[in-house]
Amino acid sequence: MQDNKHVILYIDDDKDFLDVMRMILEKNGYIMAEAASAEEGLRVYKDIKPDLVIVDLMMEEVDAGTSFVKELRALHNTAPILLLSSVGDDFNRLADYSAMGLDGVLQKPINEAQILTLLKKKLHTA
What we know:
Blueprint: E1 7-11, H1 15-27, E2 31-35, H2 38-48, E3 52-56, H3 64-74, E4 81-85, H4 88-94, E5 104-107, H5 112-125
Parallel strand pairs: 1-2, 1-3, 3-4, 4-5
Helix pairs in contact: 2-3
């Protein structure tokens, strides 16, 4: 936490999604840190130790998001991790995301109510 606000790290290579997420998070009392790649996200993660991480599945590589999650597990991360993807609904049905170290999967386009509900749930149980 920073200034009594939860810090959310959002990693996505799409500037439009970063801008929309920042608007949603900041108007609802969160602090957002961002990164445009998995590599940059790892660096920011180490610097700020966020309360929760949201990562896009497909960035510079098809599975950049899942590779990033593996890196966080190796660092003994305890912050909840949410995957945001355009294949989110299918991913939820077909994959055991908890076995991958994920705490949830969100579908693009961004659904503000869904994200805020999940953030409250994960941050109060984290």
